[in-house]
Amino acid sequence: MGIARALVTEPAVLLADEPTGQLDSETGAQIMELIARLAHERGTAAVVATHDAALLARADRVLELHDGRLKPAASVPAAG
């Protein structure tokens, strides 16, 4: 329901904090597909905070927050 509310106004930027954190793997994959599709089809910028390796692996760009500073991720874990 929260994702639907966030998307109804067709925002330019979607902010998602751990969108797959409490989901089973199938539902998490559906959410990842939705976010990716929105980003690519609508041109929506998706800013996602996550520890989910599968979501990280799908990202166009991955940054790490380290000691309060954003920096490019040293490596992106493989999904699976």
TrEMBL record:
Q: Which InterPro entries match?
A: ABC_transpr_LolD-like, P-loop_NTPase
**Where do the TM regions start and end?**
none
| Domain of life, per lineage | Bacteria
Tell me the Gene3D superfamilies matching this sequence: P-loop containing nucleotide triphosphate hydrolases
PANTHER family from the entry?
A: ABC TRANSPORTER RELATED (PTHR24220:SF685), IMPORT ATP-BINDING PROTEIN (PTHR24220)
Give the protein name, as stated in the record: ABC transporter
